[in-house]
Prior knowledge:
201 residues; alpha+beta; Jelly Rolls; 7-stranded antiparallel β-sheet; globular
Amino acid sequence: MPNGTILGHLxxxxxxxxxxxxxxxxIRGEMAAATQVPAMVRPVGxxxxxxxxxxxxxxxxxxxxxxxxxMEDHLRAxxxxxxxxxxxxxxGWQRPRFYVYEEGDFFTPHRDRDxxxxxxxxxxxxxxVSVSVFLNDEKGGADSESYSGGCMVFYGRRGDGxxxxxxxxxxxxxxxxxxxxxxxxxxxxxxxRYSIVTWxx
Length: 201
């Protein structure tokens, strides 16, 4: 996970093995069988979201209350480490989203927090730390349910130039970053990508 180490030097929080392989497998199975709705985006100047598959294409799986509770137990346990790492006081998190990226699905470069747009709702402006938890491996994997493409890429500036750092997902790994970091999900080229996302405020 060399790029995870680089992101750590840039101030990101990376925790490998947050979820066990067995738990990842169980949650993936539930997500695969669950009802899904298309994920939305919020256009600049609008308070509510819309489905725009030119910008974002992925499904949001509806999982059981018990699965959400398991994930929230992990978030609760991780919260003190996030507060220490990012030197912020966090009051809680927004409801976790369970995303399924099919072949061809993607999310163009975006920030999870928008404080410049007056139309942005307070719950978006309140986001401080974004969290993604990967439920399967990119390319390889012990359980043979991996995928290709779908890489999470972070963008930043250094001096007069810009840089991009791709993060290859690892089953059970959590990555957290300040919600104003520009990032994207590249198109999935084969298989199915599973992840859980939330935002601490």
